[in-house]
Amino acid sequence: GPAAFFEDPRATVLQAALDQVGALGWTDAALAAGARAAGFPGLANGMFPAGPVELAHHVMDEAAEHMQREVTKMTGGYGMELDGFQVAEVAVLARLDRLARVRSRWPEAMALGLRPAHAGATADRLARLADEVCHLAGDKSADFSWYTRRAAVASVCVASELHMIVDSSEDLADTKAFVKRRISELKTLDKAPSLVSDFQLGVTSVLGALGTAVVSLAPKGPGLPDPGLLAAGLQAVLQNLAAAAPAPPMGGSFGGPAAAAAEESSIAGEGPVFDGAPEEDPLAKKVDTTAARKQMKDT
Description:
- By secondary structure, this protein is mainly α.
- It has two domains: 7-49, no CATH class; 52-293, no CATH class.
- It is built from 14 helices and no strands.
- The chain has helices at 2-5, 9-24, 28-37, 44-47, 53-75, 84-99, 106-113, 116-136, 144-166, 173-191, 197-217, 227-244, 257-268, 290-298.
- Helix 2 crosses helix 3, helix 2 packs across helix 5 and helix 12 (227-244) crosses helix 13 (257-268).
- The chain is globular and about 55 Å long.
- The termini are far apart.
- Residues 217-221 and 250-299 have low confidence and may be disordered.
């Protein structure tokens, strides 16, 4: 019909190519097969200059849109009273539900998205995703917690993808339980003073999940993301968030990836990188973290 006539042919081809991913992986062959199926034979190369990673990014975008719809459905018009953390859990699980359709091939998509040529676009998507989850959960902070919450959510999203890849339980029950535990940890962290150690915890959690995935999948040998690339990818996400945050987190007073990202973004003098990032700087005054660090050592 007329509506179909105005549809973006790229989206149509990507959707058709998704049906080929199971057999062909994230490849030019899958894109070419999608183009043929959608009635655009021979045009795949010109349509997708970045190559097969555009297919992986399409899945990420589509999963994020599905997440928004599911949360809106659950919180709008059904009289359900959910707190922000419950909404965050619903959001993360709704996104995973979408990714699960290409679960057997997702390790390769993650590895592809983290290659140096594509890592920037992948990190940008993850930073926006974390911002969207916090926005859906009703977060209106304009201080240091704006950053901590988003960094923590980004790490939960990545760690949950790794768990999904190796989950052999029925209906991804183990992954759902994992997400529930991580969100409940965020609730605890949210009540404590926000420190960069929270991010280091997030990165450790992701790399721990990757370690589990590597061990579980070793005999099958799919293309899991390299731990170094994954750590660099998370650092890029934190850098995007730091550039958009209302204040450079702790002014780089810790040596972790979040501090390095904050330091780099403040040197570059970047402003917010995506819509909705607060521009005020309520944390302009120097924060004394000595007591907090002593407390961490004592606990």
